[in-house]
Amino acid sequence: QLQASGGGLVQAGGSLRLSCAASGRTFSPYVMSWFRQAPGKEREFVATITSSGGSTNYADSVKGRFTIARDNAKSTMYLQMNSLKPEDTAVYYCAARRVTSIEYNYWGQGTLVTVSS
């Protein structure tokens, strides 16, 4: 199971840190990612981190503002979001997939981020 938390209401230019806690299985073998879905739009990729945490990748829209990280000892992934913009408003989902899989096997329930202008 994945449990996302940390969402809320913030003014443009502000910061939030999302967390995604995993339970029920070993966390470290999984590639972890964040996705988001804005109202009326399709879900989109935000950021991903490899199982060891040694490599990350970001959507162009968040590059330089968001930072993904993980703590395998705590079975938790994070998304530090800085310089937030109104267009970052969305429900943010964490997801996990096995290294050998191209599809995501597990999804969190989502946490709402609202950025006011």
Which characteristics define this entry?
117 residues; mainly beta; seven-stranded mixed beta sheet; four-stranded antiparallel beta sheet
Please provide a written account of the structure:
- The protein has strands at residues 2-5, 8-11, 16-22, 30-37, 44-49, 56-58, 66-71, 76-81, 90-98, 106-107, 111-116.
- It has 117 residues and is an all-beta fold.
- A hairpin with a 6-residue loop joins β5 and β6.
- It is globular.
- The chain starts with a strand and ends with a strand.
- The mean pLDDT is 95.
Quick synopsis:
The chain has strands at residues 2-5, 8-11, 16-22, 30-37, 44-49, 56-58, 66-71, 76-81, 90-98, 106-107, 111-116. By secondary structure, it is mainly beta. The N and C termini lie far apart (34 Å).
Poorly predicted regions are: none
Give the structural class.
mainly beta
Q: How does the major sheet shape up?
A: 7 strands, mixed
Cα radius of gyration in angstroms: 13 Å
Name the shape in a single word: globular
Mean of all residue-level pLDDT scores: 95
Series of H and E elements: EEEEEEEEEEE
Helix content: under 10%
